[in-house]
Amino acid sequence: MKAYELLFFVAPTLDEEARANVMNRIENTITAGEGTIDSAEDWGKRKLAYEINKLTEGDYILINFHANPDHIAELDRVLRINDSVQRHMIVCRPEGE
Predict the structure, then answer these.
(1) Where are the domains of the chain?
(2) Are 75 and 30 in contact (CB under 8 A)?
(3) pLDDT tens digits, residue range 23-72?
(4) CA-CA distance, 97 to 63, in Å (whole number)?
(5) How many angstroms separate the Cα of 13 from the Cα of each of 9, 24, 45, 58, 68?
(6) Distances in Å between the alpha carbon of 92 and those of 43, 63, 64, 96?
(7) How far is CA 2 from CA 21, 23, 88, 95, in A?
């Protein structure tokens, strides 16, 4: 398995229950492909560099995880169809981390 990190943001007006549902969906998708979550950090509200969908701020979350490279496409698909996730980025981490 390879090491990856996922950074995404949701609208800051999203309530805690909806944010928890987004996190559960992501965690379930990662673990369904036999992946493991190393850590999840809530970065809080950050100002966006430019306006996205009439938002000037976003509530960021960073997830470090290990997964099979074949399963990353499924995770990307789940993030794309989730309306709460405004933008996301999945990158491969160096093996030493």
Answers:
(1) 2-92
(2) yes
(3) 999 999 999 989 999 999 999 999 999 999 999 999 999 999 999 999 99
(4) 13
(5) 12, 19, 10, 9, 34
(6) 20, 12, 10, 12
(7) 26, 21, 19, 7
- What count of residues does the chain have? 97
Please state, in angstroms and rounded to a whole number, the distance separating the CA atoms of residues 30 and 25.
9
Mean pLDDT of the region 12-27: 93
Say yes or no: domain 2-92 is CATH 3.30.70.60: yes
Q: Report residue 14 as tokens.
A: 């999203």
Total Cβ atoms within 10 A of residue 64: 16
